[in-house]
Each structure stands twice: as structure tokens, then as C-alpha cells.
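Kindly review both lines to help learners:
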Amino acid sequence: MSVLDRRRLLLGGAALGAGALLTGCTSNDAGNDAQVNTNTGGDNANAAPGQKVVIGFSAPAADHGWIAAITNNAKAQAAAYSDVELRAVEAGADAAAQRAALATLLAQKPNVIVLLPHDGKELNAFGLEAMKAGIPVVNLDRAFPDAKAYRLQIKGDNYGMGVAAATYIIAQMQAKGVSAPIIGEIPGIDSLELTQERSAGFRDTLTQAGFRVANRRPAEFTADTGQRAATELLQALPKVDALWNHDDDQGIGVLAAINQTNRKEFLMVGGAGSKAAIEAIAADNSPLKATVTYSPSMASSAISLARLIGQNKGLADLVELQVPKEITLASETITKENAANYMKLGF
């Protein structure tokens, strides 16, 4: 077996292990909609209380439903463990402010730091500093470019989101006999690598089917900017067959623009898997017919894995003695047919 094959096997197993960590027994309490691993019994030796672990945590301000869910999940997961103390610090308005807050956290010398940076490239230096100081860093969602800046990197499959969205659209267009569909795209913040990866997956998959994006209007992961971008796109395209909006929070504004212009001739695919989007898909009374997941449950997994790293343990279902270096969660497609199964994971 080649080194590459072994690496793929390890990462595939890691993704499976992380999935089992959460999806086997999740809680989505109506009070905070947190996605929490409650598997504390049975044969899971890792679940038993062990060495106390102090976990530092930082994520951008919760001005967005997905980010709010990230923070809620991290706090709820930490509270589920009697041997975990979570020390959360405010991230501030930008990377510089987050860096200052993290410097204070680093001085407290927690056992592990879980960090969703404003920007992975700009906070890479902090990851290197913490790792050099002997504090393992769990890099969440927005990737550090330097592998030495993190002990574990856990994120969603951004390229896979684009692949999943395009695959759904291609299948629907082919079923309708539309050979040259007019396809629109509303991404999030264009400067972020994750947005670029999502668009690349979407574009590459469409190209393989002989399709292309006719018009692309970036938004900024908010309802207001989603409404603006959708209005501009619909004005530019008198006819649309399909639309992919990268983010369900900004999708609220996209749907508002669609209603205002009374444009219902196309199907829309969302991104992330918000509860509102899943409910709309299940109701089947709008152009939104599917969404591709990018679940904030990754924050719950990050806390669980940070705990294991702090206790020098591995994943129970893997042969390896340590938590893997990288975990990428798969992007799944939610449609009317399976919406009920995913409702509990909406945020």
C-alpha cells in the first residue's frame, strides 16, 4: 500500500470516527439547538471521566446563525464533560482583535486551544506560536495554511459542497431535458479560501456535464447582502434555470429578493443546512429544493477531540493511538425526501 493510500485510509477512518462520535447520539435541545455528543456509556472507554483538560476557545462574534451555532455547540459539548473546563475569549471584530484576545488566552496556558479564526492565513502565526509553546491547537473550519500551526484541523468539505450542489442541479436539469441551463451562483465572502473552494467544486462539476455558471454575484454571509446579490443577479438574467446560494443565512435575503421580483421559474440549492432551510425544503412551497450540508456540529467534534488530545488518547474505533492530524466532514444533500432525517441537525 502506498503512502498516499495509507493517508486516504487514515483520513477516511478519521471522518468515520468523528461521524460516529456525534451522529450516533446527538441532542438538539429546543433551548439552544446545540448538537451534542451524549454517548457517555457502553463500551466507549473514552467517555469515562479522566484527566482534567482546560480548553481555550475562540470564534468570531455570533452575528451569523452558523457562527452562533459553532459557539453554542462548543460550549454545550464542553459542559457535557465533567473533566473539561472551557475558557472562551472574545474574538473581536477582525483578525487583529482576535490575535490580541488569543495572546491573553495563551498566557493562561490551557491544555489545548480550539480556534475558529477570522482568517486562517492571518492567524497562522498564532497557531505556530501556540504549538511552539507546547499547546496543541485544534484549527476549526478556516484553515491554517501551515501544517505546523495545528495539531488537528477539522473542517467541512468546501470543495465537496460545490460538487454536491452541482451534482443535484445537473441531475434535475437532465431529468427536465434542459441541455443548456442558465445557472446563477451567489457565493459568500469571495476573499475567503473556503468560498473559493466551494466555487471551484461547483464550476468543475458543472464543466464535466457541459454546463457553466452564467452569472455570479458574491454576498457576505448575511441576509442583507444575500438580498442585494440576488436582486442584481435576477436583474442581469431575465431567465434562470437553477441557482446555488452558498449559505442558508444569506439565503433568507436571497429568497426575499426572489419573492419581491416574483421570479419562481427556477430551482434553488442552499448551503450549510439551517433549520429554516430544511423546513422550507420539507414544505416544498418555494424555489428552494435542496441544501448541501456544512454542519456546525464540527465544533462539538472539535471539543470532544481536543479533550482526547489533552488526555493523550485516540479515537476508540481507530487502531492508531492518537487523534488524526486532519478530519474533513462530508457534505450531504438534503432534499424533500430526506429532510425529516436532518431536521434535528439544523441550526
In short: The domain at 158-293 is CATH 3.40.50.2300 (Rossmann fold).
